[in-house]
Design brief:
The complex is a heterodimer of chains A (about 260) and B (about 260). With about 260 residues, chain A is mainly α. Chain A has 12 helices and no strands. Chain A has one domain.
Chain lengths: ~260, ~260
């Protein structure tokens, strides 16, 4: 078997372990599915009248508008949960055992990220299903849905890279868990839950430059209006930026972890 | 110092409750970082909801001028919900670590053990509530008046007790911190599936139906009245009745779980 195929098997095995771990622990699963679903229901039911505000983009319903925000919240928390799980592995000594195994170190991080990406894929399917069940239309049809799924999956992997880097750097599950409020801050300061033009300052100004806003608009576009090449390009660029950041931080953190043990 | 065993029963019970509350206070003083998420979460929700949904006040039928005033009591009650749920998580941790077993073999009645946890949560909920309130005042929320503030704080303390009963019941039922998401999401749904975001008339039909039967809607309306208008008995008593009802039901359930918990 070639080295590449062997490494792919390692990544697959670690990715599967990561997914099973998440589905078996309610503490890890709840932030990815339960909380975003609950918040989607609450915000749709509580602030649904917002579609009547002057300046609100034309949408079929507030649920249709909110789907991208719910997916975004879910994938961000999937990245955070992935980081927590990796930190728990470090605390329990499992990562040390992997470090001593005859496998490239990058496969350890990549395995975790593959698991996070799979959870992102699950989240996108979950929320698209919820949207369809409760009457939201996907404006661009199957092609639009596939674009949204691809963007959510890629962003989950990108965000997971940052979570993994923090876990490797600190080796502490409680520190990574402490980032949970920060995830909410970053989300609220983006256009995940409301159109940027209707937000209140200073949230509006910050959301305008928040990379997550570009990603959200890229996911939302195919759902509410149609695929826009510019929006899609900006989303891909924003995801690439997060990937690079996660990659640089992960490599540095991995070196640090190998040095300190 | 007089030993607890030598005290009359009612004084011994009070001393035990005070000791359990002091333990919770010590936990807070010795690990202040542990209180940060409980304070941060409602504050972030307050700032986030205000920044994101602030434009809702432009909707026809929204009678409040500033969204800060409208949403601040919700965030204060949300903080109470988080604090109460955290009390449940801490109880689950104590069960996992065997501390509750030691309490259960003590001669203290079960209700006393539960009261210590619940009252500690009530007192602790005033910290995030005060933090959110101060931030809201800085951002332009209206001053609710002393009577309005007292009503809000009373609602916050009682709501934390309700949440602590819910969290404790679940902790005693599942005996594991894995039940934490259920504790938190249950309280989140109870507090937010109300007139939290907008007045009843502006809610989506299904949410309006839920809010109409959700007793916490009365609690929120009572806690909010000072911020959006004047305080009246007519707005206050439904909140008090709702809290008494919730405390009776969830308290009885938590106590039942406590009594069923064998050493």
């Amino acid at each position: 078997m070639s080295e590449l195929a062997t490494n792919a098997r390692v990544v697959r095995a670690l990715g599967m372990r990561s997914i099973r771990q998440t589905f078996r622990r309610p503490q890890l699963m709840a932030p990815i599915v339960v909380f975003p679903t609950l918040l989607l229901a609450i915000q749709t039911g509580g602030a649904g009248g917002a579609v009547n505000l002057p300046g609100f983009p034309p949408v079929q319903s507030f649920l249709q508008f909110m789907l991208a925000g719910a997916m975004m919240q879910s994938l961000m928390l999937a990245g955070n949960s992935g980081g927590i799980a990796l930190a728990v592995d470090i605390e329990m000594g499992f990562t040390d055992r992997l470090f001593s195994a005859p496998i490239p170190r990058y496969t350890i991080v990549l395995g975790r990220l593959a698991g996070t990406a799979a959870l992102g894929l699950f989240a996108s399917l979950w929320f698209l299903a919820i949207g369809l069940i409760f009457g939201a239309e996907i404006h661009s049809g199957v092609a639009g849905a596939l674009i949204a799924i691809a963007l959510v999956t890629a962003t989950a992997m990108a965000v997971g890279g940052i979570g993994a880097a923090i876990a490797l750097r600190t080796g502490s599950a409680s520190v990574v868990q402490g980032l949970f409020p920060l995830v909410l801050v970053v989300l609220f300061l983006s256009s995940a839950f409301f159109p940027n033009d209707l937000m209140i300052q200073p949230a509006k100004a910050i959301a305008e430059y928040n990379p997550l806003s570009f990603v959200v608009e890229g996911i939302r576009g195919p759902i509410i209006t149609g695929v826009d090449a510019t929006e899609l390009g900006e989303a891909v660029l924003a995801i690439a930026g997060i990937v690079v950041l996660g990659l640089v931080l992960s490599v540095r953190a991995l070196r640090h972890r190998l040095r300190v043990g | 110092m007089e030993s607890v065993a030598a005290l009359p029963q009612w004084r011994a019970n009070l001393a035990t409750i005070a000791a359990l509350m002091a333990r919770a206070k010590n936990e807070l003083l010795r690990v202040p970082g542990a209180a940060i998420p409980g304070v941060l979460a409602p504050t972030i929700f307050f700032l986030g909801l205000n920044g994101v949904f602030g434009a809702l006040t432009q909707l026809k039928g929204f009678t409040t001028g500033t969204y800060e005033s409208y949403i601040v009591p919700v965030s204060m009650l949300q903080g109470a919900g988080f604090t109460g749920a955290a009390a449940g998580v801490n109880l689950a941790r104590d069960i996992e670590q065997g501390w509750v077993d030691r309490l259960l073999v003590s001669p203290a009645p079960r209700w006393v053990l539960l009261a210590g946890t619940v009252l500690a949560a009530s007192a602790r909920a005033l910290i995030p509530a005060t933090f959110v309130f101060i931030i809201a005042l800085f951002l332009g929320a209206g001053w609710p008046g002393i009577d309005g503030l007292l009503v809000t704080y009373a609602m916050v303390a009682a709501m934390a007790a309700v949440a602590a009963c819910w969290g404790s019941g679940l902790a005693l039922r599942f005996k594991s911190q894995s039940a934490a998401p259920l504790m938190q999401s249950g309280m989140m749904a109870l507090v937010l599936m109300t007139t939290a975001y907008a007045p009843l008339a502006l809610l989506q039909p299904w949410m309006r139906s839920v809010a109409e039967v959700n007793p916490v809607t009365n609690v929120i309306d009572a806690a909010r009245q000072g911020f959006v208008g004047g305080v009246s008995w007519a707005e206050t008593w439904p909140g008090i009745v709702a809290l008494i009802g919730l405390l009776a039901v969830l308290g009885a359930w938590a106590l039942r779980e406590m009594r069923r918990t064998a050493v």
